[in-house]
Design brief:
The protein is an alpha/beta fold. It is built from nine helices and eight strands. It has one domain: Alpha-Beta Barrel (TIM Barrel).
Length: 221
């Protein structure tokens, strides 16, 4: 069943769009079932669960960390993550920079833009991201151990498709604006928007990464 769902979703994805199978709360056996069907990118959002799963699963999995990351949990995530999608504050960004400097690593990240009306959601404001990108583009040593690959966002949790489209249009326009302001940043290319309920809409707004869990693995048990 997991393989069939994966194949169905993959058949609708344009070339160049990466499917991240959100495997949080799902056991290693289900991840292996998706792996056997050809899936290689998986997303986790809890550091302890993430660190516990990694050693028991194939080494060529590309792990994406997609949840809120506390600075005291970096050692559980950064050694294994191919991409940290959810960098949502300057405090976290600075901590990742410090970890990278201490460990001789450059950490690929996305900056999370606060979208939607929910105050509980994290993320940078547009103004904060613009300041970070100006600093990063200048080659500042303060951001020398991160590689900012693009933006991540979550639409408002609503059944109103017009609201979802407005949110996705906003982040796409902002991504385009940043790319125009910093044309030398050739690897600032990723736009991670879209989850199980709205990924098809996200594709219309230029998603390069979609994060899909329930539509692949079913409801968590």
């Amino acid at each position: 069943m997991i393989a069939e769902r994966l194949q169905s979703i993959q058949s609708e994805l344009p070339s160049g769009v990466e499917l991240v199978a959100v495997s949080k709360f799902h056991p290693a056996g289900e991840i292996l079932e998706a792996y056997a069907a050809g899936q290689r990118a998986f997303g986790e959002n809890r550091p302890q669960e993430f660190a516990a799963k990694v050693p028991s699963l194939p080494a060529d999995i590309r792990w994406h960390f997609i949840g809120h990351l506390q600075t005291n949990k970096l050692k559980l995530v950064l050694p294994y993550a191919a991409l940290v999608q959810s960098v949502d504050s300057r405090h976290l960004l600075d901590a990742i920079q410090a970890w990278g400097a201490a460990n001789g690593r450059i950490v690929p990240i996305l900056l999370e833009l606060h979208l939607g009306a929910e105050e509980t959601k994290g993320g940078f404001t547009q103004e904060e991201i613009m300041a970070v990108m100006d600093e990063y583009a200048s080659g500042a040593a303060s951001l020398s151990c991160v590689r900012i690959r693009g933006l991540m966002g979550m639409a408002t949790n609503t059944d109103d498709e017009d609201v979802v489209r407005s949110d996705f249009a906003r982040i796409r326009a902002f991504k385009d604006r940043l790319s125009a302001l910093h044309p030398a940043l050739a690897d600032f290319t990723e736009l991670s928007i879209g989850m199980s309920g709205d990924w098809r809409i996200a594709l219309e707004y230029g998603a390069t990464i979609v994060r899909i869990g329930t539509a692949i693995f079913g409801p968590r048990k």
